[in-house]
Design brief:
Layout (H helix, E strand, L loop, with lengths): L8 H7 L13 E8 L4 E6 L3 E4 L7 H4 L10 H42 L1
Parallel strand pairs: 1-3
Antiparallel strand pairs: 1-2
């Protein structure tokens, strides 16, 4: 028992080529020229004859390996300052807490001595 796929309705739709609608598509240029700000030019297919771009694979930091951190609002510096302040406060609390412990233990021993007298 074999099934003939050519007689099914789906295969008829797949086999017939669909024709694009006329006069609604933009003109396609197979050799469009792309010009980068760094001076690099290359050809691609596009609906525009020429394009000017700011970054390409020849000058992009990710591809060149010259990655830079651009911090226009100085957020990284602000974060580092806040982190340093937090660490200073924690160090200060540790010193104060150890001083408090010693003063508390001294006061307990002094009060115990007074009770004994």
């Amino acid at each position: 028992m074999s099934i003939d796929c050519t007689k099914s309705k789906k295969s008829k739709n797949i086999a017939s080529p669909k024709i694009m609608k006329q006069n609604i598509h933009p003109k396609y240029y197979k050799n469009a020229i792309i010009t980068c700000a760094c001076g690099n030019t290359f050809k691609v297919g596009s609906t525009k004859r020429e394009m000017h771009i700011e970054v390409c694979s020849a000058c992009h930091p990710f591809y060149t390996g010259k990655a830079k951190v651009v911090d226009s609002h100085r957020r990284v510096d602000r974060f580092k300052r806040m982190l340093a302040k937090k660490e200073e406060l924690q160090k200060g609390k540790k010193k104060n807490s150890s001083a408090d412990r010693t003063s508390k233990s001294k006061s307990k021993t002094q009060s115990a001595k007074l009770k004994d007298k």
